[in-house]
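Input.
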Amino acid sequence: MWVPVGGYLASIALQAARAESNLARPASLTCHYLAEAQFGPVDIEVAKLRDTEQSESFEVRMIQEGKTILAALIWAVPTGGYGPHVSWLAPPEVPPPDDLPNIVLDDDVIAMMGDEPFWKNFEIRPVRLGHTVEVPEGLSKEELKLAPKRHARIRAWDRFMNGATYPDPWMEACRYLIISDVSQFPTVATPFTPPLPFVAPTLDLTVEFHNFAPDSEWLLIEGVGSAAADGLIGAHATLWTREGEIVATAKSHMTFLDLSAPASPAETKTWFEATASE
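Output.
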C-alpha cells in the first residue's frame, strides 16, 4: 500500500520473537499500532516476559527514527501438546475456490487505493452473499452516508499469488496474520460501499494460532463486523482449510476516518496526521 501494511509489520514482530524463542510455535499475537511506518529500516527490541518449558511470553517493540511504530505481545508454546483436537466452529458451506472468479475491486476502492502493488500479492475469490438490508426512509444526506446498506460479513478463498505456504509454524503463522489483517477493513467497509465514505486505520490486531496447515494453499476466511460506535469499528475473522480445520481466529478494533472533506482520497491526510492536532 502507500505505507507498510499492518499484517506485514506484525509478521516482522513475530519473527523477532521467534529469534529469541526456544519453543516450536507461536500461540497468539496482540499488536497495537502506535504510529504510521515508512518503507525503510526499523529497530526491533524484544523482551522475554516469561520463560518455561511450556510457554514463553515476549514483548516486541518496533522503532523507526526514534518513534515507536508498534508494540506486540506474543505467546510461544511447544508443538504436539496433549489434549483434545476439535474445530468447534464449522465452516460455512461455500463453493470451492476453483468454481469462483478472482476478485475485481469495486471502482471506489480502486479510486482510493490506486494501483497499489500490495494487492498483486493475493488471489482472492469472494463468495457473493447478497446480504442487503433495508435502509430507513427519511434520512438526511449525512445519516444516509452512515447507514449500513449490507450486513458486515465477507467470505472468500484467499491464497498468496505465488502459492507459497511454509512448513515452519513461525513462518506459516505470518501467512495467517497477513490474510487475517487484510480482511478486517473490507469486512466493515462492505455495508457502506459504494461509494466508500471512510477509511478505518487499525488500532489493534489479535490473532490466535490454533493449528498449522502448510498443505492447504487456499484458506477460507469469514470476516464479521461486531459493532460500530463512538468512532470505533470492530471486526473478527476465522480461517479454515479446505478440509474444514480452523487454523486461526482474529479480531481488531479500527477508527473511523471520514473521507468527505477533502473529497479526494488522494488529498486526505493520514489518520496520524489528521489526529495529531486533536
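Residues 262-268 have pLDDT under 50 and may be disordered.
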